[in-house]
Amino acid sequence: MNATRPAPEPHDEPRRERPTRTDRLLAALGGLVSAYVSLAVADLVAHWVRPEASPVPAVGGAVVDSTPAPVKEWAIRAFGENDKTVLQLGILLLLALLALGVGLLALRHRLLGAAAVGAFGVFGAVAAVTRPDSGSVTDAVPSLVGAAAGALLLYALIGRLLTPRPGTAQADRRGFLIVAASTGLAATGAAAIGRAVGTPVQENAAASRAALVLPRPDSPAPAVPAGARLDVPGLGPFITPNRDFYRVDTALIVPKVDADRWRLRIHGSGVREERTLTLRQLMARPTVERDITLCCVSNEVGGSLVGNARWLGVPLAPLLREAGVRPPSEGGPADQLVARSVDGMTIGTPVEAVMDGRDALLAFGMNGEPLPFTHGFPVRMIVPGLYGYVSACKWIASIELTTFAAYDAYWVPRGWAAQAPVKTQSRIDTPRDGAHPTAGTVMVAGVAWAQHRGIRRVEVRVDDGPWQDARLAAQDGVDTWRQWVHPWAATPGRHTLTVRATDGTGTTQPERRTDTMPDGAQGWHSIDVTVGRA
To answer: I want to staple 383 with a disulfide (CB 3.0 to 4.6 A). Which of 31, 360, 371, 475 is the partner?
Structure first.
């Protein structure tokens, strides 16, 4: 006889219904909230480990290092000094899109979704510990802790959607929203408190800068000649205020260095005895104050990535000579000085240029105050006549003497020239391109620069007419820009204004425009204006 099977007992709870469209939307939201909490937790932990170890700046730094130079140049042209903000926003947008997908994945494969969050954390950890400025495996901790928090949260949130509420066949959507909102708010509050409180490193750095008293210069800068500043509306100031001075670097988080803990190491080929100096030792040396114009190699014709400031520091050449360094012209074995920043940036400078008598400085003062953090506090290099990427190392930590044949600094493998003297440039500041002045006398004015050569002449041309000499302001020195002005008898209609400069050697700017790569832009700056009737 066939045994009769007992009828199945009815379930105490109804079966979970298949995920609905609402569940899928909530799952995507869960992925987004989990990613946000992961980043917030990682950022909070990074404030106590090292701010640069936070996943977004760590990954962003890796992106910057691997981005082709033409793309970087496009970013600077398109976004200017906001390029880093745009990059970080782009990374966050990409992470948000991936997080939405991970949330949907977790709805079908709960463990796999949580594992995907963990994988992102591992990627961030690897990026953090492989950065040039990473000094410890602890840089991996923020990304790993943040990923663990995000993975656990996503697992819990998806569980609310996969497990029906008691007595129903519906997902626990209310519980999902409560957990998501509470954890999101908690993470936001914790991260905000962490940023408000700051880190010991940041607090010590800020305190050391506030307490720093700059020495009186043993060699003060000569007074700026009265005629060096032209009083023309629309023309920028002769000395660029610190807040307006251009900033171009690869640091997504500005290094905050404690001046009391800062050290400068001098070593390498031709150094008789390696030296390490503190800031106090450096400032105890004879100090000089100089007006020097800096220019970025990414500055296009007519661009604004140039500024003039009064720098206070110590001459670099005597310091090198005391260490036994001789330039190649005197038989020294090293022709390149590689300056290394605390964030790992390397900048290669010709030893000959540093030691040929120009005012190459290790600067700690800018326009009468300690260097701002954004401009290299506590110490940076300044070498007149060279573009910043081959001379102006910020947050400098070491100087190594080597050769161009033996070592390529950061920018060289990325397509830039190893040596890059500043090219003669001139710019029209007023009127602006596209302006609509009224017929009559229009003051055309701007600046011209050829650091370490000086400016001898500036000429202005209207349309295809003859070149006319502009009036030059008094020259402050060969290492600063020079203002100029030309009164133009403007007539109604559309006109093109063009400027060109001649440097102290008698060399005039070439007409043809070239790109910024590989060693700086050149060419005449032109603007178009439409003159109305008086």
So the answer is: 360
